[in-house]
Design brief:
By secondary structure, this protein is mostly helical. It contains 14 helices and three strands. It has helices at residues 9-24, 29-48, 59-71, 83-102, 129-137, 142-153, 158-162, 193-205, 216-220, 233-247, 250-254, 259-272, 277-284, 289-303; strands at residues 169-170, 175-178, 187-190. A hairpin with an 8-residue loop joins strand 2 (175-178) and strand 3.
């Protein structure tokens, strides 16, 4: 459903105006990106179910969409959508409904209160240092090494890697800039010599064969797919799965390792090496130290 396009003119117009509405409210780039995707998915769902006017929406439509989200596969990892992800979907829909009310397309909040599934406990799925070395050792391209170095070496979130541009990386100073992180936070990520070498290798030797000279975003984006477009989180995950499969390690293949597992892993490994917890907080871009402190409990559990 996410890959479908809108064909109903009225729904396309609502979608475009909603994105502009988010701009006026000052939403950060990553939130706009997510809300754009989730609202478009809802509008495509409306289109597929013969609902061509937003004025015809009822609470039952939102309940039916919730059922659809619960049942549909997760595009970015194995299994179904988590309760947390479904909650973000409905946060986007609440913003969309408010936009429709403000623009006089709805008279009241037809969405109402809908009980959402509770968030499942987070599975941190920490890889060992040896397992990380194994992933690097089976890479067959500089692009694959760069992907591991973005998510492990730099600890990026999926959206942060998707939005990364060439001018966000300073190879000389060995710094990577996250312009718009979670919660509108900007941060500077120091890169090790090896991480710098990995990211620079892809940029200098492989990326130039993928870039589309007539596409401004293709020219700006750091990492591109084979069509020359900005690479998506789904493609990042597919590359990671290919790397894991190449190790031939059944345990790694069966553990459901995802992109965020690499971020969890670098945080844990930094703690195990005695790096200051406040440095790790800044490295990951956490708002609260309490969030980073979760890794101390993971590390203690691993030691035990």
């Amino acid at each position: 459903m996410q890959n479908q396009e809108l064909h109903i003119a009225r729904l396309k117009t609502h979608h475009k105006k909603f994105i502009k509405y988010l701009d006026t409210l000052g939403y950060d780039k990553s939130t706009k990106y997510i809300y754009n995707r989730y609202v478009k998915e809802f509008l495509c769902w409306m289109q597929a179910n013969g609902i061509h006017e937003v004025k015809n929406l009822t609470q039952q439509h939102f309940r039916d969409h919730l059922t659809y989200l619960i049942e549909r596969p997760n595009d970015n990892e194995q299994g179904a959508l988590s309760g947390k992800t479904i909650g973000v979907h409905f946060s986007a829909l609440k913003a969309f409904v408010q936009f429709l009310i403000n623009s006089n397309h709805l008279k009241f909040n037809v969405m109402g209160d809908i009980a959402l599934p509770s968030a499942r406990p987070i599975s941190y799925n920490i890889l060992t240092v040896d397992e990380i070395h194994r992933l690097y050792s089976v890479c067959t391209s500089q692009k694959e090494r760069a992907i591991l170095s973005l998510f492990y070496g730099c600890g990026l979130r999926r959206t942060e890697a998707e939005l990364l541009n060439i001018n966000d990386i300073n190879f000389r100073e060995q710094l990577l800039y996250v312009r718009v992180g979670k919660g509108k936070k900007r941060r500077v990520v120091p890169m090790s010599n090896q991480v710098t070498q990995d990211l620079k290798g892809y940029f200098q030797h492989e990326r130039k064969y993928q870039v589309k000279t007539n596409d401004l975003d293709s020219q700006k984006a750091y990492m591109l797919n084979n069509r020359g477009s900005r690479i998506s989180g789904k493609s990042f995950l597919e590359s990671l799965k290919q790397i894991i499969h190449r190790t031939g390690d059944q345990d790694l293949m069966n553990r459901g390792i995802v992109l965020h597992s690499l971020r969890h892993s670098i945080a844990t490994h930094l703690l195990q090496r005695g790096v200051d917890i406040e440095y790790i907080r800044d490295f990951l871009g956490h708002d609260q130290l309490d969030t980073t402190m979760l890794y101390t409990r993971i590390t203690q559990s691993n030691i035990q």
